[in-house]
Amino acid sequence: MTDSPEPTTPNQLTLREAAPPPQEPAAPEQVDEPEQVEEHLPEPIRLDPADLATHLARLSNVFNNPAEDNELDPLEDLDDELPQPARPGGAGFILLKHGRARERELARLVRWVDDILLPNYGREISTPVPWCPWWPQHPEAVARLHALWAAWRQHIARDAGPSGPAIWHRDFLDHTMAQLRSAMGPFAACMTHPHRPAHRLLPPPPNTNTDDPGVPNAEA
């Protein structure tokens, strides 16, 4: 005897009819490539040749004569009072300056000599220890005193440490003053008495001669 199938209840028919049919997997979406946008470049700048030549001439004048476009300003006096380290490589050495730049640097040096150096280290004038109030006319004195001033600014700066001034006295001041005020120094023909002003520039040696010393120069 064959078993008859079980009758389907109304609830089972409702669940089968309500179940959604299986769906096929969705195809991957296509990503549109970005549109090529043309960049809008600015129009080229066109300069008038005459204006360009004028600007180039002004720039050339500034670089060739920087002192002419830099007048003294009130901040310079304040800057002079503060210790400034010497620029690397001796870029600010006075013998490398010319024109107004040299005049301005010499004026600062004169003020330092009169306000700092001479009141504190200017010993009495005598025959073995001469001096010259017209020292700015002595090239050697200008060079030595300017180097001494640059070293002074460097060694009184904060980063020089507590021994900075002592090093300046030992390594720079003593040697410079001994050379300048020696009886064989640049002031040898100048003041040897405090009440007898005198000034004379000693002639330098002749220029280098590359001729054979055994053959006299016909033009000499």
UniProtKB/TrEMBL annotation:
**UniProt-listed Pfam families:** DUF4913 (PF16259)
Q: Which residues cross the membrane?
A: none
Residue ranges annotated as compositionally biased, kind Polar residues, are 1-14
User: Which residue intervals are annotated with compositional bias (Acidic residues) in the record?
Assistant: 68-82
User: Which residue ranges does the record annotate as region Disordered?
Assistant: 1-48, 65-86, 195-220
The Basic and acidic residues compositionally biased stretches are 37-48
- What name does UniProt use for this protein? DUF4913 domain-containing protein
- What is the scientific name of the source organism? Streptomyces triticirhizae
